[in-house]
Amino acid sequence: MAVGVLALQGAFHEHTVALKKLGVEAVEVRKPEDLEGLLGLIIPGGESTTMSKLAEQYKLFPALKEFEITGKPIWGTCAGLIFLADRAVGQKAGGQALLGGLDCTVHRNFFGSQLNSFEAELPVPSLVQSEGGPSSFRAVFIRAPAIIQKGESVEVLAYYDVSSTLSLEGDEEARLEGQSVAVAVKQGNLLATAFHPELTSDTRWHSYFLKMVQKSGDLVNVSPKQTNPL
Ligand code: GLN
Q1: Cα dihedral value 123, 129, 132, 133, nearest 10
Q2: Range of the domain at 144
């Protein structure tokens, strides 16, 4: 099973290391043809405007969209989450091209600047149900986005309690009301996390994604049912 990692910029190497650790072939994707034969794709963290510009420059958008439409699993981490979202706020002037597909509005720098980067223990019941292990996940947030609005088909896998965060660029109101924002979501074959699992030694999110890939690969390989001529 070969899984791609979009390798235009950002933390792609760390994802390939995690995939190899789990015994999976990791392919760095820079050109449209690199996607051929891959069963899943990870879009790493980094800087989403730069990533968008490079994806445009390398003419990757149509191939990525096709990959997504055919239902092959894609996991976006941090900037990758922004890239996958249908809507993003807090963008630089002029906006940025998004792959979209994930019915969410993302605030690009919800948790503030690089200086506001932090780690937090997140309760992750769905992850534990699937992968076992400790009840929480130590999540690394770096200039992190958050999901501030989502469609009905989007399942939240982890929340972050914003009442405990002192400085937020994204949603002052949510903080004052002591609400939570979604920081890990799933919609069909799309997975997105606002944090960086590839920067920790806990590979449960990678295993979780690989199960999605395995499942969708199995479905692709099922031969169509014979139709009864009568
Ligand atoms: N907020 C950053 C952006 O807009 C993403 C940060 C990250 O991927 N660590 O691209």
Answers
A1: 10
A2: 2-221
Could you give the CA distance from residue 167 to residue 63 in angstroms, rounded to a whole number?
A: 39
Residue 47 lies in a domain: yes
Among 42, 54, 82, the mutation site with the greatest number of ligand 1 atoms within 8 A of its Cβ is: 82
Q: ipTM score of the complex?
A: 0.96
170 lines ligand 1 (CB under 6 A): no
200 in any annotated domain? yes
| Entry pTM | 0.91
Atom of ligand 1 nearest to the CA of 46: 8
For residue 162, the domain's CATH number is 3.40.50.880
Q: Does any ligand 1 atom lie closer than 6 A to the CB of residue 185?
A: no
Residue 29 pLDDT greater than 80, yes or no: yes
Nearest CA-CA partner of 144 in 55, 53, 49, 46: 46
79 contacts 45 by C-beta, under 8 angstroms:
yes
Number of compact structural domains in the chain: 1
The reply to whether 138 falls in a domain is yes
pLDDT at 175 over 50: no
C-alpha separations of 55 from 26, 69, 222 in Å: 19, 17, 33
